[in-house]
Amino acid sequence: MAVRAAVFDVGNVLYRWDPRFLFEKLIPDPQERDWFLQNVVTMDWHAQHDAGRPLAAMVAERSAKFPKYAGLIQAYVDRWLETIPGPVPGVHPLVAELARRDIPLFAITNFGAEFWELFRPEAPVIGHFADIVISGREKLIKPDPAIYRLALERFSLEPGEALFIDDREENIRAGEKEGFVGHHFTDADRLAEALRGHGFLA
């Protein structure tokens, strides 16, 4: 079956994202900053919101555990857009070209629902996508196989019809098991080559 649609991840595929971009501004000492990101505002803690947990509960719990850092924990919510410094170089023009060629575009993203509401108005490229499965809304998170099955159903795609583009290998492997054709994203040039290989680009 020919691949006919492209399904993108968002973080570090369409837009650069890392909490460090914010906390480099707020915690000048690099050793303290590293400790904070390894123990307080961690990726595992952030992932709770991706999986559907409300931010208010997360912040209250974390602030009780680390009262010294309560202000910085709250700043992660209040200034969260500063964790996204801009687009991943070269990818947005590829999305625009795919849209111009009428390639069906979709996305599957691990993204908290509240953070998505902040982010979406700042991300015009998302307007090219017909539908997006957002983990925080569905309470399913990559690489759970169920999120890929939901996406195929929502996007009206059969196994083998969608190229799935993600920067994390475990997400690619899980998607491939559910019928996606995987592309492990590293940069726009390699992505363009893969898109040409599937006949999406000249």
UniProtKB/TrEMBL annotation:
Alphabetical list of InterPro entries matching this protein? HAD-like_sf, HAD-SF_hydro_IA, HAD_sf
Report the Gene3D superfamilies cross-referenced here: HAD superfamily/HAD-like
CDD domains documented for this protein = HAD_sEH-N_like (cd02603)
Q: Which domain of life is it from?
A: Bacteria
Family matches, as SUPFAM superfamilies: HAD-like (SSF56784)
Q: Give TM regions.
A: none
Q: Which PANTHER family match?
A: ALPHA-D-GLUCOSE 1-PHOSPHATE PHOSPHATASE, FLAVIN MONONUCLEOTIDE HYDROLASE 1, CHLOROPLATIC
Q: What is this protein called?
A: 2-haloacid dehalogenase
Identify the species of origin. Parasphingopyxis lamellibrachiae
Its lineage opens with: Bacteria, Pseudomonadati, Pseudomonadota, Alphaproteobacteria, Sphingomonadales
